[in-house]
Amino acid sequence: MSNHITDEMPDTWVREVVDAIEVCGHEVTDAHESGIAIDLTPVSMRALDADPGEQLIIGWTERYGIDWGLGRFDQVGDPQTLDATTPQDIAAAVHQLLTTGSAS
User: Inter-axis angle of helices 87-100 and 11-23, to 10 degrees?
Assistant: First the structure.
């Protein structure tokens, strides 16, 4: 069962998170109040054991708060808690996910 990402993130907060992720050298392909999508490189696909076409989605769910998962922009099959709250902490966790496959 997929969890839907809800429209909960303020635009200014989304912009700050996107800017922080891009400073880490990752390209954000889509971002708005319902989530942030990052296309995966071959290296990040291997690190995350992702299927072709999946993206890394940073979003907000009622169940987890800030979370991440693999999937498409409006659905993530198994969202995982992203233990971060500031844009810089989120960007650091995203960088770690994309390079090692783990957020911690």
Answer: 50
Closest CA to 67 of 41, 19, 11, 76: 76
Q: Judge contact between 77 and 68, C-beta under 8 A.
A: no
User: Strands 3-4 and 55-61: what pairing?
Assistant: unpaired
Residue with tokens 């303020």: 10
What residues have CB less than 8 Å from 83, skipping those under 6 apart?
A: 93, 103, 104
pTM, full prediction: 0.84
Which structure tokens are listed for 69?
């998962």
Residues of the chain with pLDDT under 70: 1-8, 61-64, 74
Give CA separation, 9 vs 24, 29, 35, 36, 76, in Å.
Answer: 21, 17, 8, 10, 17
The whole-chain average pLDDT of the chain stands at: 85
